[in-house]
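Internal tracking record. Fields below are filled automatically when a chain is submitted to the structure queue. Please do not edit lines marked as system-generated. If the sequence contains nonstandard residues, flag them in the REMARKS field before resubmitting.
Queue: standard
Priority: normal
Entity type: single polypeptide chain
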Amino acid sequence: QVQLVESGGGLVQAGGSLRLSCAASGRTFSGIVMGWFRQAPGKEREFVAWINWNSGTTYQADSVKGRSTISRDNAKKTVYLEMNSLKLEDTAVYYCAAKSRPFPSTRYDDYDYWGQGTHVTVSS
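SYSTEM-GENERATED OUTPUT FOLLOWS
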């Protein structure tokens, strides 16, 4: 079992920045893939980024590429999502997820464990 707790959401002005954190606990993290997804009101859950816990390899969705960074702190068992140049359309609930098998995926149904989500609201 893996437990995930997100934090760092809130109200941010357009053009601003934020850093979301996902603290993980539970089973060993060797080989695990961590992902960030988001869901805006009335929309489907959308992939944002993933990171391979072992290698540190990352991938971001086109919608955030160039203005986001996903990273991890092994000692703290924490994954971060930093986003800059925030846009109104970044407003959503952001979820952290963990995938047991070491094959990265952008599909939310490939992930086994989920946090409760943290709200991000970007205002004009």
